[in-house]
Amino acid sequence: MKKIVKKIIGLLCLLGAESALVFAEPEPVDLVYTNPGQDCAHSVRLSWHTSEENSVVYYSKAEDSDYKHAKKIKSTGVRTPVEFHDGEQYYRHEAVIEGLKKDTSYHYKIALDSGYESGDYSFATADNDGEFGFLWTGDVHSNPDVNIRRKLSEKLALSAEEKLENDMDLVICTGDEVCYGAYYDNWQEWQGGYINRKVWAGIPGNHTYYDVFLKKGQEIVDNRWWCVTQNPPDNGPVEMRSNFWFKYDSILFIGIDSIDTSYLNQQKEWFKQVLEENKDTYQYLVVFQHYPYISGFNGGFGGTNVAYYLWMNLFDKYGVDLALSGDHHVYLQSKALVNKEPVEDGKSGTTYFVCPQIGDRSREMQGTIKPSIIKSRITSSDLAQESGLSYFKVTKEGITHTLLDGNGDIVESHFIPAKRPYVEPGNMTLVLILIIAAVILAGSVAAVVIVRSKKK
With contact defined as beta carbons under 8 Å apart, do 311 and 285 qualify? Predict the structure, then answer.
C-alpha cells in the first residue's frame, strides 16, 4: 500500500513540476518542509510560511484521502522573523507531529482562516526493521532563472524510485539545494520537486549562506535563511541551530554545519556527547556536511575546504561508517580509511564521499590523484560533466551505494559491509522498561525497609 500511494503522489508532483512558476510574492502557503523528527519511526517536524497569521495543519494516514479522521495542529505564525533579499513578508510556522505509527504513509495539508487550503504533502515513517533506503543529493543550486536544475533533480529521484524499486522515504542533502539563500524565489523554485513527498534532511551549504549584492558578487553572511525555512530536531549545540541528529531505522545520522567554523570546538564536544548518549542503540553511523572531507578536485587530503583533519580523530574513535559531503561538484568515494590509510578488515574505517552536482555547473577533477585511498571517482575521461544522484540500500549485512548519472542510468554500485551487529529497536524499549521497573522495585523495597525500621 505504501509504495502504491507514493507512486501516485510522485506522478502528480512530476506533472506539477512542468507547470510555469511565477514568483511575485509568497503564496498563501509557501516553503513547506517535512523534516525528520529525532525518532523517524514516530515523528516528523514541519516548517512552512503563510500570508496569514493563523493556520491549521490537518494530518492523517494516506488512505484517509478526504481527511475524515484527521488530527489537527493549530499554529500562530511569527511575522517575518528574517528578511529575504526582496523584502517578502510572511508568517513563519513550525510544528512537531509525534505519536505516529512506524512503516506508515501519511499526508497533510495546511488551511488558513480565510478558507484557503494548500495542496497535499506526504511522508512515510521508518520501518524499524533494518531494511530501507535513502536518497542522497546536493549542489542543485535551485534558481527559477535556470529551472533545469530542479527539474533534473526531480527526474533523477523518480528514476531511482522506478529502477531500484525500494522504499526511499528519506532524502539526505549535503547542502546548496538553492542558489542563493537570501532570495525567496530560489526556495520557491525548489518547492516544485520531490521534497513534497519525502522526509527532507538537509544541512546548510555556502550558497545557503549567500546574500547577493550588485557589484560585490557573492557574500557569505550566515545561516539565517536556512534556519527560517527548516525545522530539524532542536538537539544541536546551543550556539548553532543548524546542527542536529536523528535516528532513522538502524542509522544514527548527524548533520554538521561546516560553513561557519567559529564554533568548531562546541561542535566537537556536542558530537562526542551525542555518540555517548546513543551508545549501542544503532547499527550504522552516518555523518553529513557540505564542505568535503576529502578533496573532490585532487582526490586526496589536500585542497580547498577539506575537513578531514578537523574530524579524523573523532570519526576514527567512534567508528563513523559513511561521511557524506558536497561542494566540489565531482563524485568521489574513498576506501574505508583510518588515520589516512585504507583498511580492509571489514570491521573499521570510514568511507568518505563527495557528491556530483545536478544541473549545469559540472567541473573536471584536477590535480594529483592519490589512488591508494580512492575506490571510485568521476574524471574528465568518463562522467565529469554529468549530474548525479546517489541511493543507499541499507540491510543488516551492510550498505550498498548506487550512483545514477544525469540520464538516470545506473553507473556503478558498491557494497560497504556492516561493522556492528543490528540493534533490534524493540529490544531497546524492553531494556528501558526493565531499567525503569528495576528502579521502581528498588525504591519500593527501600521504602518497606525504612517503614519496618521505624516500627522497630
Answer: no
